[in-house]
């Protein structure tokens, strides 16, 4: 009976039809995750008008939503190994889709907030599990590109939110745009059939039959009768956040958390308040919603372009300068009077916020070994979500002071500077890929030494 390592089969495989179907399914889920998150910012002006709420209250609603998102990231990130990543992805997609749909029927702000908080549980839980699942099935050569591409779905969804806002808001009100957010409910029966369970979960369950079925889609020549070994088999017990602070990982884990916190401040300050900020700078509602689309276009292009640069230069050499570019662009846009220059700056900001987070997710997935990857992604995003809780209310309070636009944008740019500082302290020598290279190098050295003796 052949003995194989399923992780090695995946890592060394070529892209197959199985991969493309999986990528498209996860991309679609991420697209509506992005839509459902960003649509609130597009509807704030109308919600304020309909319900007579202030900027602080509108910001607080955004913060309440992200409290649910933070809880979801922790809850569904840390317990993914117990229930299986596939089940968590299906359940969290149901949560954010159904309760976004229900938000469109909210008769009062309180009911609306309750729906958004529960939807937030889904927003927070789906991201880390999608990243963890695809990182187990993506070949090593394409892993960063695949994860970055899937997370571009978030930006596509946010763009869709912008365009649907332009089409529906002035003519039909804010309700229909939330109804659109319920469309993934139609996808769930298909996703349940398409999505595979994670390799680590199948190994824990000793479900050899299912594992062989999945792996034969990646490597058709694999025998039906095979025995599996797993490099991290001795670590297959429940992973926890404490494992992220062992083996000299404490500093890097802390810095990942802080950089994610800063990036989420950037993202949610802009996702929630960009239309309002641009309206305060003199643009009308339609133009302000177009800036949201440009922000996401910048995020998509930035993810694809800088994602390829990462393959050549490494994560830190790309992401740290990108933080700085974002900070400078935020400062400059406060002084820009030319709409086309403003579009260019907003696109750069999109690359340095949403796009940067897409690539940071890939960084975390690559940095940690597979046995703690779900816990790493879940806890990093959970800590980052604290930034998403702070950002909407923080900006809402700032707007009540009626400051000049450049001061508001400068306040956001501070987060980018601190994000760059935090990422600069991440230790590359403790990354899983660096450790693997060290082990391989030692094996080669020992082999050469043995050969010389012979």
Précis, in short:
It is a multi-pass membrane protein. This protein is an all-alpha fold and 454 residues long.
Describe this protein's structure.
It comes from Psychrobacillus soli. Keywords: Membrane, Transmembrane, Transmembrane helix, Transport. The structure is a single chain. The protein has 18 helices and 2 strands. With 454 residues, the chain is an all-alpha fold. It has a single domain (2-453), classed as MFS general substrate transporter like domains (Growth Hormone, Chain: A). The protein has a two-stranded parallel sheet. The radius of gyration is 22 Å and the shape is globular. The chain starts with a strand and ends with a helix.
